[in-house]
């Protein structure tokens, strides 16, 4: 059913774009933001909200994000000073572990090997024949390796490699923030949720996930600007760096189905497939085994850290060899539920809401959860439900998990068993799972009761990140099938039938 415009939002005239909306002030609608603003002198006025001079909202939020990123780098300082190399558990005790320095030598970059094309010797890889990352991530790693010059030892090269990668990932962070701020153009300060997220500062330099997260954010911004082909191209490139961005095509499918915008979805899906193929097909042709390593490793990987399946496995003592089947089944059922939600909701959900739900579902059902996976969800959460209370509840659970996994590895990696035992680790996994599920529940409530959706409630918006879907009328809903009237004969046909029936009775 097509929703009626709110009282404060006049319906746009046919052929005319909707009027520009004023910038939403978080302190006018969010009690946590209002309370926190007292530290800086009270709720923001118009000049502070809209920005003055050079300090526009996007520049302020980027500056805050880079400051938090720098604090995250400082948190890794004990490892940069030697904890990565001084013992098996030292990097866990300081909670500063990163894959980046270890894989510089462990995946052959120190020896000048070309990812996917050159087989990695067992003496340095521990049995991993090829790089187990998607192609664009491998390219990113290779560029950083080429810039890693001048070290006097392997240890210095690994340290420099981390610093160079951290600098490149900082650029990705700046791109991410700009895109989040501009996706909902009249809500720039929602980007502060991403900038101040503890999970981002703590996990940004553990791995290379920020590359895919930034490209996904660019794709969502392009979709919000009604450029579906370009949006699809960016989502395809993001999928060439990490698998999860392809999941966003599912929400676009059901939303375009409901709005009858099949052309927009076709352009997005086609652009995604084309850009993914341009990156991947050459590597497939040159080295199938090297290209396929990421996919075979993901398939063969056993139940691992942070997952619901690990809790079940540790509690029951059973090895989940068929975890892939169970995880895939739950994911399929969950996606079907999200699709039904999108097609049954009283008002078409916003793109960011469904995107968050689908990626969160993947996180909850997957057989492994690395701490940096929280980066996938942070920008989606800021766009799906920009409310500080719920966001901070979820981030507190993620920060607890971040500390818990390192303390658990410290406990299991040392004979002294100093750290978090198995039972305690199961509790922090449960906290992560429950925190994510809580935020999902809040988003689902917003979908079922649109009057609770902060984006729509604060200023009467429809879907500022929806692009061609924004204010589009519904073309199909599941509820419309149940209420579809039965076809009726024309009046002439009905009269002729009545005449024939009367003649039959007379006979």
Automatic annotation (TrEMBL):
> Topology versus the membrane, per the UniProt entry?
Multi-pass membrane protein
Record field: transmembrane:
160-181, 193-223, 229-256, 268-288, 325-344, 351-371, 391-412
Localization annotation: Cell membrane
UniProt feature, compositional bias: Pro residues: 11-20
Q: Where is this region: Disordered?
A: 1-28, 453-472, 483-507
Keyword annotations for this protein?
Cell membrane, Membrane, Transferase, Transmembrane, Transmembrane helix
Q: What is its main location?
A: membrane
Q: Which InterPro entries match?
A: GT87 (IPR018584), UCP010361 (IPR016570)
- Composition skew (Low complexity), residue ranges: 1-10
Pfam families reported in the protein's UniProt record? GT87 (PF09594)
UniProt family annotation? Belongs to the glycosyltransferase 87 family.
Q: What is this protein called?
A: DUF2029 domain-containing protein
Species of origin reads Streptomyces smyrnaeus
- Lineage from the top down? Bacteria, Bacillati, Actinomycetota, Actinomycetes, Kitasatosporales
């Amino acid at each position: 059913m097509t929703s009626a415009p709110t009282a404060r939002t006049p319906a746009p005239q046919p052929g005319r774009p909707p009027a520009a909306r004023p910038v939403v002030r978080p302190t006018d609608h969010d009690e946590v933001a209002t309370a926190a603003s007292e530290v800086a002198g009270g709720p923001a006025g118009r000049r502070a909200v809209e920005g003055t001079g050079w300090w526009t909202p996007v520049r302020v939020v980027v500056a805050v994000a880079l400051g938090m990123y720098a604090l995250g780098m400082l948190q890794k300082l004990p490892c940069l000073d030697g904890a990565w190399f001084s013992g098996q558990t030292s990097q866990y005790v300081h909670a500063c572990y990163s894959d980046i320095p270890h894989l510089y030598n462990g995946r052959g970059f120190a020896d000048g090997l070309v990812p996917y094309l050159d087989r990695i010797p067992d003496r340095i890889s521990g049995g991993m024949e090829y790089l187990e990352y998607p192609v664009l991530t491998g390219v990113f790693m290779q560029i950083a390796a080429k810039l890693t010059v001048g070290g006097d030892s392997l240890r210095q090269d690994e340290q420099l490699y981390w610093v160079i990668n951290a600098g490149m990932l900082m650029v990705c962070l700046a791109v991410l923030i700009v895109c989040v701020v501009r996706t909902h153009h009249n809500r720039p300060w929602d980007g502060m949720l991403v900038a101040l997220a503890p999970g981002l500062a703590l996990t940004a330099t553990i791995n290379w996930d920020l590359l895919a997260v930034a490209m996904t954010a660019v794709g969502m911004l392009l979709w919000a600007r009604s450029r579906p082909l370009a949006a699809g191209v960016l989502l395809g490139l993001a999928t060439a760096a990490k698998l999860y961005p392809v999941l966003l095509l599912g929400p676009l499918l059901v939303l375009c189905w409901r709005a009858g915008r099949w052309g927009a979805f076709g352009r997005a899906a086609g652009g995604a497939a084309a850009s993914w193929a341009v990156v991947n097909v050459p590597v497939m042709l040159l080295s199938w085994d090297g290209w396929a390593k990421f996919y075979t490793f993901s398939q063969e990987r056993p139940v691992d850290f942070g997952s619901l399946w690990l809790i079940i496995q540790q509690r029951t003592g059973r090895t989940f060899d068929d975890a892939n089947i169970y995880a895939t089944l739950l994911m399929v059922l969950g996606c079907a539920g999200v699709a039904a939600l999108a097609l049954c909701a009283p008002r078409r959900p916003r793109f960011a809401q469904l995107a968050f739900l689908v990626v969160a579902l993947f996180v909850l059902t997957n057989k492994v959860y690395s701490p940096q996976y929280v980066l996938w969800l942070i920008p989606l959460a800021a766009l799906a439900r920009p409310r500080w209370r719920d966001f901070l509840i979820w981030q507190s659970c993620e920060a607890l998990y971040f500390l818990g996994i390192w303390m658990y590895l410290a406990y299991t990696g040392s004979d002294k068993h100093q750290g978090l035992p198995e039972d305690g680790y199961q509790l922090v996994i449960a906290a992560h799972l429950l925190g994510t599920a809580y935020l999902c529940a809040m988003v689902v409530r917003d979908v079922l009761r649109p009057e609770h959706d902060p984006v729509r409630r604060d200023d009467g918006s429809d879907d500022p990140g929806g692009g061609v879907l924004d204010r589009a009328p519904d073309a199909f809903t599941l509820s419309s099938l149940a209420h579809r009237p039965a076809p009726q004969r024309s009046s002439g046909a009905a009269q002729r039938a009545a005449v024939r029936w009367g003649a039959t009775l007379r006979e």
